[in-house]
Amino acid sequence: METRSNHVLVGSVVLILLAVLAICTVWLARIGNATEKEYDIFFKQSVDGLAKGSAVSYSGVPAGQVKSIQLWKNDPQFVRVRVSVTNDTPILRGTTATIQGSFTGPSTVSLDGAVKGAPPITCDENNLAQSCPYGVPVIPTKAGGIGAILNSAPQLLERLSTLTERLTGLLTDRNQASIAGILDNTNRLTDALADRGPEIAATLAQTRVAIQQAGDAAQQVGALAATTNDTLAQDVRPAMQNLNKAITSAQASADTLNAAIGDARPGLQTFSKTTIPEANRLVHDLRVTATALSSVAEKVDQGGAGSLLGSSKLPDYKGK
């Protein structure tokens, strides 16, 4: 009977101690939660290497840990990561989150980018669906570090595979033979150029001399042009000035002649309309007079002066 009572006493003490331990644990958990803040991060990339309890750092300084990882029900392309950070961590506007992968250990969540004097990231009461879809503020993300490289690794491998296939198709036996022929021709051309090295050097020397002579000729042409300009300035330009004066005088004479013709134009019109018709009638009368005089002269020649006074006598008739 006494032994059973001891067991009951021991059990009661153990239960009391367990209850006290549970109360202390809950109290400590509440104290810890009071000194930490929780945020959601939506990663549109693989979170391989990230696990519950992974470290969260701010600019390399430990600031908290990952609380949970799960796919976002609204869009399976995103992974929702719940993190808790210390209360004194400056989660301000401009802060972004990235996944820092590692080949030797687990991945971590890195926070940085806060702007001095910016307000903290909080829930917007006017837009709770985007700012706090699960009751805590959302930290925006950005791709960077090894995570970005690992995310783009499949595309890089695919492009590398495509490039390898194209190189394989390019380096066929026929193309390799063609490339070998091109290399052989290049070698022969190089050898030929090496053999003709002295001739090429002589040609280059001659070319240099020709260029120098061309430069001298150009200099002489420049001097000739300067001399020509001086000649034009001294001889041709005065002659051109005299010619311009002569042309100006001729223009003035032509203007005077045009004015005189304009003044004589009324008299010319009167002459053509009155004098010329009278002269035509006079010429016609002179022609008629000349015709009559010709007829008289012909009669005088044929019949003498008497033919002008009377009719011509009939010839004497003689009988047989």
From TrEMBL:
Chain ranges of the Mce/MlaD domain: 43-109
Segments passing through the bilayer: 7-29
Alphabetic keyword roster: Membrane, Transmembrane, Transmembrane helix
InterPro entries listed in its UniProt record: Mce/MlaD (IPR003399)
Protein name in UniProt: Phospholipid/cholesterol/gamma-HCH transport system substrate-binding protein
Species name: Sphingomonas gellani
Organism lineage string: Bacteria, Pseudomonadati, Pseudomonadota, Alphaproteobacteria, Sphingomonadales
